[in-house]
Structure prediction request, 180 residues.
Amino acid sequence: MKSFRFFWTTHKWTGIVLALLLLMSSVTGFLLLIKKDFDWIQPPTAKATSGTIQDFAPIQDVVATIMAQGHPDFASPEDIDRIDTRPDKRLHKVRSRHHYTEYQVDAITAQIVSGPDRRMSDLLESIHDGTFFAGWFHDWVMPIVPLGIVFLAFSGFWLWLQPKIRRSRRRRKLAQGHQS
Prediction:
């Protein structure tokens, strides 16, 4: 009976905690799956000039174009989190370290073709993987989720099986008592 009570209590509380984390991951995961369908989640990819990779402007020109915008999220080159290059679209997506801001720059002309825009998909991704809350949350709490699911499966099976074992033992004892 002690193991049943232990598993029942830990199953309940693990389920409550994991339900909150799974709800968070499920909602943000769903929104990330449909991000290309809604401009408010992720800005659409802009059209750029025709050309080949050999025609691409140097990356220094792209950075200079961004710095010339005077946007507070791009006060210095250190504010650039990343530059995603889309060779087939001849486009650079330049993302800030601050406020999920993005500019799209034509890779051929090094001119702004879109922006500044907010990339809510980056916010959703950081919530989804736990980095929004803290690095330790991502590193220590989020890995507990799959382990917790395994525990819930095991403890749920045990909570289902243990009463059946108990009833079977009780029936066996009663049957042995009637035979004596």
Summary: Strands lie at 80-86, 91-96, 101-106, 112-118. Residues 144-179 form the longest helix (36 residues). The mean pLDDT is 89. The helical segments are 2-33, 59-68, 120-129, 135-141, 144-179.
